[in-house]
């Protein structure tokens, strides 16, 4: 079978050379684009798929969605939808015709073309945690408000790990930067510290336009080149139930008109802003995302869009959101099945409710990451670093998650299950016979270094050796790796002229006052 | 859809009543027999299945398996196999004919018939950790040799948790009991502290015969009743590569002749006692298990057998076994695919290499438990309590694993994905409309208490509430639950006469000297 990787390359710069010499913070897997070779888990019967589709369509036809965006309302009117005030009702024929114009896969090309990512098909890609207002690490051992320094450090992890394919929103909200200019400073940090695919928050026209301009500058692109294909994306949430606010739609329309990609991710917590039943919550989520995607396709047919899911359940005792639950897993699988029905790429997440990077954090995150694999998810948001339902970013959790992500990438390599004569290995088995072992065998020696996944964080020593080495639990090991990575981190190369142009742009926009803060 | 449970009942005794009142150590899911409703993940093409089958058959035909058991050698001779010394070669026609006689599912009925378990089909059942020589808990915070008290405490957990369906081997080896009488004391503890399906070690005729007799006595059965259907099982390992030792086969033959169940689980670590390639390790494992199953079917056609897998890889650096790895997961899936090809029930495990119940322990264990679900495993051995590659039993890990097992049980309940009009909930969505929330809705209130899985160990509070409650990490919470369970534990009911008969049997057999210790 073909190797399940594409765009493979050796790590660049001195850090890459160090990793090859073996004196780097860790030896990691090379950059690759994983291909999900498993058949998705599909919990819905064909009748179940039709029932959820019919539910989503009837929501759009009979109940309608509020769009708090006058421009969107005008467009829907022009398209023949029923608009009353800010409520829009649309027929399923319109929705399906528009959704049918969306591509089932597309590429996004960041400033380093070698970091181009394909969204859709059977690719599965991982992004860093996005948007927590708080930060926790083992040294602090408390929850604190996010800062630019922490944000930069987490961006360094985003760049460092080859298993992180794209940058999400801010890996922690740097609350020490004034909101009017925060997007300028963080995007400067993001674009200089990483060369991976960029995200823009849809929080007002200035932020969106500034980020697009900075991504264009960083890529050394003309306006025409920038608009000729996707170089970045935004991700929006609806205001569930059944509402889209002004800035999210506005931001998307701005990206769509410049040929950039859009992900629409309703946050439908079953029992809170969606029905307590999971298929109802999924149907509502689909209605909320499909109507926005229909709008974008009407504005620019063929515009790259992905359908996101953030359907989970609440804690029955407190009403607090829960993540990585059985209900979350099934909702993600159901949404994946529906995304394939609509022919749209799909986004889900790596999530947990745990407050610290302990056992609970890892079983909840493992569940959500397996749900991503099982659902045929293409973009896994928040795949590294998320704690407390998204309210905390943690570098230890980031490192731990990357260990799990690498294992998933390895799991998806078809050569593990190759069954040619060399793999069945009858001659080797014959050679060893009924005594002895396979350690010294040529068949073993020839394959030994690549035969198995090699972890960078898991400690596989026996208890005595582990104890002699200090009896270090997983989060402490992760903390040390975090510090080692920061110590050796080198930013990816960028032309001085481009760096200067970016800096000038930031300075000018700051002088102009940045963006309004009344979002 | 039908509810995915069978044999459901309320917890018995005062502890059960306490749980219903809400003042028990924890509120857990009721006893049920989970049905795996997912389609298995099948990494092998039809050609891959044939290649592994052909490999396994050629191992048996051309290389042969050593049986260090004269009785087995005589039986193979009688069956027309080629026997040279202790090496047995057998044609695939013989193997497939014999394996074809094995049932694809069977029941085992312990002393409490309400704890009867079906092995095979799409049932997935969980057993406790088995056979670690050492024990670790958070209070000790060190690895110590197992004792009878620790063994009893872990047996209490085995009984307490409804998500544990059968008892495996000793949950920790009580090294403080002399080996000659250990089986008598532990089986007395097991049979009085639990009413679930029992296991016997195949370590010499006395141990096997004693355990069978004690299970018969505990069930209040005549010899004829005992032999009329499976009441217990043994699990054996081969001595890989390609060898079966005397006592394992001897024990199986004794169980088989009394109508009891047998699980054959080769321990084929790729790169050590099996080829470094996973399909080769799987082929060898299948050869080792199928030849034993063929023997048992020849002796007693239709005898209940399951095929086990313990194929994993070693650490490339140290040669130490690794568990829950990508290679482990794929090997388990491949073996599941082959078990269905042969029409045999399948056993796998819940395993990790971690030394303490931290994040690594849970991602490795989660991986192996998801592998069990994905492979269509019927019996999940070691599903709760395993650390350090099986060398340590831990009560905290036991509690943490049971939280994960409950979530898997809930995940397998098809009602999560029900799509009737009540679940799509269009009326509820219409009622809430574009503002408000679903909390107070009748549709929500009617379903709220049962709508979502409720954990007993996960802490879903926000950071501040969690911190105010002491900032307790998962293993510490598990430790408290462990102590609470021990404090409230009540043994399942047993007739005084039976208890006395069991005690008399143990006393008599001890007086006779127990079992030889030269195994």
Automatic annotation (TrEMBL), chains A, B:
Pfam families per the UniProt record, alphabetical: MTTB
Similarity comment text for this entry: Belongs to the trimethylamine methyltransferase family.
Keyword entries, A-Z: Methyltransferase, Transferase
Annotated EC: 2.1.1.-
Entry GO MF terms: methyltransferase activity
Enzyme class, UniProt record, top EC level: transferase
Protein source organism: Phaeobacter gallaeciensis
Biased composition (Basic residues): 1-12
GO terms of biological process kind: methanogenesis; methylation
Region (Disordered): 1-21
Protein's name according to its UniProt entry: Methyltransferase
């Amino acid at each position: 079978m073909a190797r399940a990787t594409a765009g493979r390359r050796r790590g660049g710069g001195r850090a890459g050379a160090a990793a090859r010499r073996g004196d780097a913070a860790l030896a990691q897997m090379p950059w690759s684009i994983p291909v999900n070779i498993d058949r998705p888990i599909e919990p819905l019967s064909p009748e179940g798929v039709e029932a959820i589709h019919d539910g989503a369509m009837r929501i759009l036809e009979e109940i309608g969605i509020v769009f708090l965006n006058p421009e969107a309302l005008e467009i829907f009117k022009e398209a023949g939808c029923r608009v009353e005030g800010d409520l829009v009702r649309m027929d399923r024929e319109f929705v399906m015709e528009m959704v049918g114009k969306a591509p089932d896969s597309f590429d996004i090309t960041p400033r380093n073309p070698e970091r181009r990512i394909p969204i859709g098909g059977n690719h599965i890609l991982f992004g860093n945690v996005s948007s927590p207002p708080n930060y926790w690490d083992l040294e602090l051992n408390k929850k604190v408000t996010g800062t630019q320094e922490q944000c930069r450090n987490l961006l360094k992890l985003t760049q460092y790990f080859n298993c992180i394919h794209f940058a999400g929103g801010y890996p922690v909200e740097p609350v020490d930067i004034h909101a009017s200019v925060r997007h300028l400073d963080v995007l400067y940090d993001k674009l200089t510290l990483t060369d991976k695919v960029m995200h823009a928050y849809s929080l007002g026209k200035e932020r969106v336009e500034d980020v697009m301009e900075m991504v264009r500058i960083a890529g050394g692109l003309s306006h025409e080149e920038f608009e000729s294909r996707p170089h970045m994306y935004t991700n929006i949430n609806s205001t569930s139930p059944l509402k889209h606010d002004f800035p999210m739609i506005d931001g998307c329309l701005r990206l769509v008109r410049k040929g950039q990609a859009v992900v629409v991710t309703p946050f439908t917590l079953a029992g809170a802003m969606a029905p307590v039943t999971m298929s109802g919550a999924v149907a509502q989520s689909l209605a909320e995302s499909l109507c926005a995607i229909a709008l974008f396709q009407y504005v620019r047919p063929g515009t790259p869009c992905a359908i996101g899911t953030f359907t989970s359940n609440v804690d029955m005792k407190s009403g607090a959101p829960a993540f990585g639950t059985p209900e979350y897993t099934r909702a993600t699988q159901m949404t994946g099945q529906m995304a394939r029905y609509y022919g749209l790429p799909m986004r889900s997440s790596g999530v947990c409710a745990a407050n610290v990077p302990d056992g609970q954090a890892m079983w909840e995150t493992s569940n959500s990451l397996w749900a991503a694999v099982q659902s045929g998810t293409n973009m896994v948001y928040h795949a590294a670093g998320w704690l407390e339902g998204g309210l905390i970013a943690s570098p230890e959790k980031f490192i731990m998650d990357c260990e799990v992500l690498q294992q998933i990438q390895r799991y998806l390599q078809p050569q593990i299950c190759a069954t040619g004569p060399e793999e069945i290995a009858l001659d080797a088995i014959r050679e060893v016979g009924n005594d002895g072992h396979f350690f010294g065998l040529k068949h073993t020696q020839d394959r030994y270094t690549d035969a198995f996944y090699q972890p960078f964080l898991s400690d596989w020593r026996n208890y005595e050796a582990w104890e002699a080495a200090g009896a270090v639990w997983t989060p402490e090991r992760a903390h040390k790796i975090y510090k080692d990575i920061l110590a050796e981190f080198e930013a990816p190369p960028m032309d001085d002229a481009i760096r200067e142009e970016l800096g000038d742009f930031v300075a000018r926009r700051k002088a102009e006052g940045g963006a309004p803060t009344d979002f």
